[in-house]
Fold these 3 entries.
Entry 1:
Amino acid sequence: MRRMSRSKQRATRADRRARAPRCAILAAVALLGALANSADASALAPPRLVGPADGASVQQLPAISWNGVRGAAGYEYQVAADPRFNSIALGTGSGKGTSRTHNLAAALDKAVPNGAYYWRVRGLTARDRVGAWSRVRRVVKAWTTAPQITGGDGAAVNWPTAPLVLRWSSVPYATKYLVSIATDPALSNIVLGTASQPNETQGTNFALPVSLAPGAYFWAVTPVDAEGHRGARSRVASFQWTWPTTTSTSVTDLNPDLRVFDPVFSWNPVPGAARYEVEVNSAEGFPAGSKWCCAGATTGTSLAPLQVLANNGYYWRVRAIDARGNAGVWNYGQSFTKAFDNVEPSIPNLTVRDVNGSALTGAPETNTPLVTWDPVPGASRYEVQLGVYNHTGNYCDWSLASQAGYHADTATTAWTPLGPWSGSRPFSEAWPSPQRDGALPTGPNDSYCVRVLARSDDDAQHAQVTSEWTYLNGYDNPAFTFTPPPAGSTCAVTPASAYRLPINGSATPRTPYFTWDPVSGAGSYYVVVARDSGFTHVVDVGFTDVNAYAPRLASGTPLSDETTAYYWAVMPATSAGGAGVCSDPAHDSPQSFNKSSVAPAPIAPASGAEVSAQPSFRWSSAENARTYRLQVSQDPTFGNPIDNVVTDATAYTSSSTYPADTVIYWRVRANDWDGQGLNWSPTQTFVRRLPVPSPTHESATNEGIPPFSWTPVQGAVSYDVHVEQADGTPKDFNFESPSFTVAKYYGIGIVHLQVRAEFPTATGGMVAGGYSALQPVLLSLAAPGGARGVRSGSRLLVSWNPEPDAKQYEVETSTTNGFGSRIESHRVDGTSWTPDIDLRQKQNRGTLYWRVAPSDWGGNVGSFATGVFASPRAP
C-alpha cells in the first residue's frame, strides 16, 4: 500500500480543522431548537375552566367554556362519561365529545342520556404542540322536568258525546311524548299500544283514537328528546270511562189485521253505537235455549224478525255494540203475545158451493162437493180434513183424517174430492202425473164433516205455525152428504158451454178452482192446465170423478204468476179410473185465464225520498205470501243487488250501507209456499244521504295543531280525517273516536283538515259519507325566544330558549347580516352552540353576525332570531 505523502497528510488535517466549527454550529442549532420546542409546550398552562361549575346538575349539557392560555393557537376539549376519558360522548368531530377549536367554548350537537359527565381542556400551539390538561370537572345531566297534567285527570268521560282529550304541559328539550294508558295504576296492563311500542305524539295533547270498555283507567306521559332518550314521567292520572247506552224501546205490529201479528222492534239511537244486538226470548230470564231471534246485529234502529215467531208470549231486549265490540247495557222492551189468526172463525166464509159459485146452505146433498173459503191474511197454505158424521151419536169422527181422501194440503182457497186414478196415461209422457186421491164412499147416509186451518211459514225452530180449526156448519155438525155421480157410459168431448169457472179470459189473483157441467157419458175427468194453447207445456193435471177440481200442493201448484194466459181443458173418461179417453185438450174446447197476484204495496221509504238514517223498508202484506224477497240495487234492472234478502216480515232494516248521494232502487215481491216468486211491486227509488260530521276544533297555538273533534255520527264505525298539508301533500288517518290529534306534524303554513264517517257494508267492507268543510289551522315555527350571542375574546357563544315544536335548531354565522356567505352552518339538538372561528384570520376580524331558527321533524326551518356577537357586560 502506497503511503500518503507528508504534504497530503498535512492538507487533510487542515481540512478537518476547518470543518469542525461548522458541525458544532449545526449541533448547537438543533439543541436550541429542541429546547425552544420544549419551552413552547411547557409555556402553555392548563386552561382555567369557567363553566359549568364542578358538580353542577343540569337539565341539558350546556356549552363548556374556559379562559384563554397565553401562547395557545387553539384548544382541544374532551367530554366523556368516565373520569379517565375512555368513553368519549358522541365520538370525535365538531359538536362531538372531543374536537379541536379556536373558540373558548364548545357545545355538543346531540342530546346525551342522563348521567355524570367529565370534561377537560388543553391548549394547542401554532406548531400543533399540546399543553397540559386542565383540571377535570364533573357535570351531572339530570333531565328531571316532568310533564304537568293539565287536562283529563279525574275526568268522567261520556263517550262519544264528550270525547276525552288528555293534556299536559310542555317539557323543555322534549321533541315528543309517550302516552301510556292502562287499567291499573302501575301502568302494567296497557290498553293502547304496548310497553315496547307505546303511543307517541308530538304535541301536548292526545285524543283517544278508539273506544274503551267502561271502567277506570290510568295514564301518564313521558317526554322524549331528539335522540330518543326518555325523560321523567309525569304523575299517574286517571279517568273514568262511561258509555251511556240506555235507550227507549217500542214494539209495533206492522199489520193492522187482527189475524196477523207482524212485529217490528225499534229503539232510539245510542251515540257511539256501531251496531245493535236484539234478542227475543220466550222466557223472561233470557236463557240461551229459549231464544227465538235474532242472529247477528243490525246497524239500524229497528228490526223485524226474518222468520215468524211461534204462537207464544215473548220478551225482548236490545243493546248497543261499539266499533271495538264493547257491549252496552241491555234495554228491555215491552213483552208481547204473538198469535196467528186468533179470531173466530179462523177461516172466514167456509162454505159449500155449486159449480156456478153460489153458496149452498145447511148440509146439502151433492154429487159435486165444492168447499171454499176466503183468503186468510198471513196464510200461505191450508190444511183440510174430512170427518165421517156419525148419525147415531151426532158427532164427527176425525179418526180417518190421515187416510187418502180425508186429508188435503192446498194453497188454493177451495177443496174438492179427487178420483182414484188407475194409472193409465191417455196423454203425453211429458205431462206430470195427475193429482189423485182415494174415492169417498157414497150412499144415502154418507155425510161428511169439514174443518180447515190456515198455516203461515214455519217458525225459527222449523215447527208449523197454524190457526185454530174452523168447522163448516159448526163443531160436530155435518158439512154435506155425498151422493154418487152418474156412471160413465160413452166416449165424449167437453163442449164450450159446459165450462163454468173460471170464466174464459178472466183474471184471478190466486190459483183458481175449476168447475164445469157434467159431460154426458163421462165417468171421470182429467183437468189439464198448460202455459200454451197447444198444451205442450202442461203444468198441472188433476183427476177427479166429480165436475169440479181444486188443485192441491203439487209440483205445478200453486201456479206462478204469468204475463201471458194459462189454458185449461177437461178431458172426459168413460171409466171411474180414468180409462176410455177419446179426446185431447185441443178438442175439448179449451178455456183461458190469467193468474196475476196482487203485489205488495211499497210503504217506506217513499219513492224519491232522501234518507239520512239507516233506511228501513216497509210494504203491505200480500195474499198467499209465505215469504217476501226484497231487492235493493244501484241498477234499475237489479242485475247486481246490494241487498237480496228473504224475510217473513213486511219490514226489513238492512245492515248494509248504501252508496251516498246516488239513486238507489228497491222492489219487493211475495213468494208462495213453494218459493215461487210472485209479482214484483213497482220499483221505488230513494237517495241515501250519509250524515256528515260537524267539526268543532280549537284555535291553533304556538304548540302545533290542536285537537280536532266533531259530532259523532249514528251508525258510523270509524272516521277518516283528511289533512291537506301546507305544501299540498295529503295525509289520511282513520279513527274510531270522534276526536283526532296529529301525532307528528311538520311544515309551515296553513294546514286544512276535514272529516267523514265510515259505515259498514254487508260484505264486510266500508262505504264513506261526505267530507265536512275544510277547517284551516295555521302552523308556524317561531324564532326561538331568549336568543343571544356573546363574544369575549376568542369566546363565541350563541344560546336560546327551547321551542316546543322544534326537533333541532339551525345555527349560522356570517360576516354579513344578509348571511349570503356563511362562515359556519350547523344543526344541533340543544339550545347553545359555539362556532369554530379563528378570529386571528383577517377575514374574521370584523363584525360577526349570528342567527338561529327551529327546524321540525320534516327538516323545515322556521323563523330566525338574528344578532351580532356582542361583548359581555361587566358584572
Entry 2:
Amino acid sequence: MEAPIVRVLHHSRQRVRFATDGVSEKIPQLEAQLLHSPGVLRVRINKMAACCVVEFARDFTLPTNLEAGLSDWLFSLPSITTCNKAEQQRVAYSPEEGEGEDEERFVPTRIILPLTALGLTLLAGPLALPPLGVAVFILIASHLTFKRAWQGLRAEQKINVDFLDALAVTLHSLEGFLLGPAVMISMIEGGEAIRDATQRIASSANVDLLATLQTDVRVIVDGNEVIRPSTSLMPGDRIRLSPGDQIPVDGVIESGDGSLDVVKLTGESVPRHAGPGDEVLAGFILLEGTLTIETKAVGESTRVGQITSMIQAAPVFDTRVGNYAGKIANRFVLPTLALAGLSLLISGGSIAQAASLLMFDLGSGLRVSVPTSIMAALSKASSQGLLIRSGRSLEILVDIDVIVFDKTGTLTQGHPTVTHLAILNKSSSSKILRLAASAEHGLRHPIAEAIVSYAENQGITPFPCDSWDYRLGRGVCATIDGHYILIGNTRLLRDEGIEPVAASEDPQLAIATPIYMVVDGELAAIFYAADKIRSDSRQLIAELHRRGIQTHMLTGDIAPVAHAIAESLGLKPEEVHAEALPDEKAKFVKELSAKGHRVAFVGDGINDSAALAYADVSISFASGSDLARETADIVLINDKVSDLLVAQDLAQRTFSIVRQNIGIVGVPNLSALVLGTFLPISPIAAVIINNGSAIVAAANALKVLGFSQKKLPSSPSVSQSLTHQSTKEHQTSGASDGDSKTAVANELTESNNINLLKLSNRLRLKHQSITARRNRPNFSEWSAQHDPDGFAWTYCGKTKSYDRT
C-alpha cells in the first residue's frame, strides 16, 4: 500500500486522530494493518469523514514529527488485505453490514431462482422439458435451504427445519414429483425475503456528532483573528463566537456575556446566561452576545465526543423480526422424522408416502404469515403517525414492562411558555400584554418569543416602539405609546434603581422564571415562564400505570423542577431521577435491563442518545435532534408522546394475529401428519394442505391493516396550574404588602441545609446561575455577595443540597 498522506487532527500521549487523504478506498486494508500492528490497542474508523482514531499501548512512543512519522510508520506496516470477524467488529460494526452469519440479503437469486423453478415445473409438460433437468434446477434453486441446513448441523450440531425441508425437496425431486418441491422452496424463500424486509428500514448510520460540530472558527492568534477549521483546535486555543454560532469545543468563557441554548445537552428549557469563568460545552448554541472562549477539550475528549463513543459501544442486534417459524417448527423436526420413518415401515417402503409427511413441517406457512403480519403492521404504522423502523422493535414492544422518559421536549414541550401573568397595579391585562409584546417583538430570545406568543393568543397586536434598547442578559428598555417600559429580570430592575418584589410563593409557580415589567417607574406585572407539559402527557402516564408498566422520568434538569413536573404528571418521587448526565442515563437503562426488564426509552435530545442506544426499544420525535431521531427504533411523526401507546397497541394486535396464524398453520399440518402416518396421503394432497394453510394464514395476516387506534382514556383530575395559561389579576395592597414579601424572602433560614429552589429564592438568582457556579472554588464567596445576610453557602453533591457555612 502506498504511504498515505496523514493530517493529524488531534493527539494526546497515547492516542492519535488523523485524516487520511486520497486512500478512502483502501480503508479496509488500513484497518487490518493497524489491528495487526504491535502497540495498537484499539482502532476506530469514521469512513464518512475519512478519519481514524488509534489508541496505543503505554510503551509505544509516538514519533517527534507526528505527521511524517505516522506516514512512515503506516507505510512500514505489513500488508494484510483481510481480517477475521472478531477484528472487524473491533474496527467498526454497522447495523447494515452482516447481522448474523446465516443472514441472506434480499437479493434477486433468493426469489428469482425459486420462482423460475416453479415456472419450469408448470411448463415442463407443455414444453416437453426433461424431468431430470427440471429436478436439478429445483435443487440448485434450493441452495439457500441446503446452506441453512448445513449451518444448523455444523454450528448447532443438530438438525433443524431446513434439514427437513431439504430432505423433502431432495426425495420428491428424485421421485419425479416436482410441483411439491418447487412450490415449497418458493414459499420458503418468499417468506424469508419478507422477513429480511422487516429489518431496520433506516439505519442509525452511526451519526457522527463530532462531524456535525466541525466548522470554521475564528481563532485568536497574537491578538488577531484567524479563520481555521475547528478540527485543528488544540487545548489552550482561544476562539471568538458570535450569535448563531454552535460551540465546537468544551471550554471556559474568558470574556463576554451571552445567552446559550443548552436544551439538547442538559435538558434546561430556559436559555442559560453565561459570562466570564462559566463553563461551556460543545453543542451549545450562542443565541445572543459575543464570547471569547479558552478551549479545554476538543474532539472525542469533549462531552459530546464521550456521548458518541458510548453510542458506538452499544450492542447491535439483528433487527429483523424473530424467526418464529424456525423456533416452532424445529420442535417438530424429530417427531416428524420419526413419524415419516414409521410411515415408511407401514407403507412397505414407500418413499413417496414418507416424503409427503416431511412437507408438514409448519415452517413454510409460518415463514410466510409471520413476516407478512409484521410488514402489514409496519405499513399501517405510517398512517397512525409512527415510523417503526424494524420488526424486532415491534416484537419487543409487546413485552415492554418499563418505560423511561426524558423530561424536556418529551413529557414537556421543550421551550418556555407564559404560564401565569400577575398584574400588580390597576392596569388592565390587555394593556400590559400590548406593551410587553411591543417591547419584546422581534427578539429571538425564547422568553421574549413566549411573551409575544402569549399576547398573540389573547388577540393582542403590538405597538411600534418610539425607542428601544436591548441589554444582554437583563432585558429590554423601551418607550412605547408615551410609556417608559422595562421588561426583564431583577438585574435590569436594579440597574434602573428599582427594587423588585419577591416572586409568588405559590409552589406551582416556584419552578417558573419570573419576568418583571415596569411601566413609568412602577412595577406593573410579573410574567411567569416555564416549560409547558404536553397536553397528553398526564393521560399517558395514567394509562401506563393502569397497564402495570413502570414509568421513570430521567432528566438533566435540577431536582426541584423535575419533582414539580413529576407531581403534576402523577409520577411518584421514586420514579424521578434528576440532574442525570448522559452517561448516567445510559447506565440507568443498562441497570434496568440487567435486572431482566424490557426497557423502552423516550427522548429527543443529544444527551438522550446514549440511553436510546442501550434501550431495548428507543423512541424519539420527528422534531428531536438528528442523533436521537436516527438512533431511535420508533419515531413519533406527529410529536405526540401518547402515540407510543398506539405503537404498543399495534404491536399487541399484530402478535395476536401471529398467534392465530400459528393455529391456522399448525392444526391442519399436525393433524395431517398424524393421519398420514397410518393412512396413505398423496404428495398433491400434502402440497394442498401445507401451502393452502400458508395462504390462508398470509391472508389472515393482512387483518393488521384494519387496526384502528383506541381513544386515550381520560386521566384523573390533576392540578392544571403549572400549564394552564390564564391571566389572573392580583392587586397589591400597597407598599406594605411588597415590603412584607421582601421580608419573607429575606427571612433567616431556619435550617443550615436547603435545596436549590430555596437558595435561588433567597439569593434572588436564577437556579441556572447557581448550578453553573456551584462546583467552583469561589462559590462560597460568590454566594455570600448575593445573600441578604452575607451567609456563605457550599454545595453537597451527595445530597444535592446547599449548606450554610
Entry 3:
Amino acid sequence: MTQAALRISVPFALSVLVACGGAGGPAEPTPAPAPVTRPSPAATARYRVTFDATWDGSTHPTDFPPNPHFSGLIGGTHRGTVSFWQDGGLATEGIRLMAERGRQTPLDIEVDAAIRAGHAQHLLVGSDVPSSPGSTSLEFAVSLDYPLVTLVTMVAPSPDWFVGVSGLSLLEGGDWVADRTVELTPWDAGTDSGVSYRSSDRVTAPPQSIHRLTGSPVSVGGSVPPMGRFVFRRLP
C-alpha cells in the first residue's frame, strides 16, 4: 500500500469506528426512569378512635384502687401552630381540671378558642369508661390543613394523672394512615403532689411540668405497663 493510501484510509477507518460507537466512543444515553407518581391524599378523612382501657389489678397491682375508671374523652383536631399539652410544658387550666377532676370543661373552651383563631378545626368530645377494663369509641374528621389529633382522659381515681396523645399526625408517607395503635402509659399533670391513687388533694405550688409517671404505684418490675390504648382506624 502506498503512503498516500495510508493517509486516506486511517482517518476513514477512525471515522467509521466513532460513528459506530466503537473504540471508546460515546455510549448511547441511558433513558431516565419514568417519574413515580404518588396519589394525592384526600382532602379530608374520617376516623374512629377506640379507647381500650386495660388498667386493672393484674396490670398495675400496687395500691390498686376500688372503682377504676376513666373520664370522658376530650380533645381536638388541629395544626402544628397550637399545642394543648406537651411533655415538659405546664398544664393549662383545662388540662389541670381534666387530670384532677375528669372535667371536659374548660379544655373544650380552650379548643374552641383555637378553632376561632384558625389553629384547630374540630372539638372532640367522647364518653367515659365507667369501669376499667372497658372501652369507648369516637368518630371524627381530619383534613390536610388540620391533620393532628390531641385526645386525653383522666386516670380515676388519681391525684392528677391522665393518658392521651398530643399532636398525633394521621398523615404518613404522604397519605392518611389506614390504622394506628398508640399504647398509653400515664402522665402526671404536675398540679397535685399526691403519690397514690387515693391521695388527698395536695396542690403543687409552684406547678411542675407535665411528665411521665415512672415510679410507684404505676411501675411494675422497673417499667410502666400501658393502662390502655388508642386504636385509630380510617373509615370508608
